[in-house]
Amino acid sequence: MICYECGYAIRRDFAKFCDHCGSSLEIKPKKAYSKKEMVVKIEDEIDKATNLFLLWNSAIAATFVFYIIHAVTDGYIYLFLLVLFMLVVSWMLLLTKLHDLSMRHHQPTKEFILTNFGIPILGTFYSYIKLTQK
Q1: Are 63 and 79 in contact, with CB atoms under 8 Å apart?
Q2: pTM for this model (two decimals)
């Protein structure tokens, strides 16, 4: 048997206390878990931003298609609203990922907000191109 505190090898099998340090052998010490930092590669973040950018672009195209279908047929308003909602959600996800990238590049938050909310579509394209260049 080995003492949990000092690591001393105890020869008696049913001992309750360590011969070397005197600590109790019945209570196991709690393991100290060290927090490991996650290492995130910039290439992975750029790939995620690219995927969100492609999702956002496809949502823009789908919104135009369903708007044209709605305008021509006077129906399918729910599909148009659903795709419009998807467009807004994908844009917010893209802006969140781009904001993370801008923080890594030490870009001021004020500049990022003014770029993307001043002229939303062009600002998002500009931010994406600027932040994902290698």
Answers
A1: no
A2: 0.66
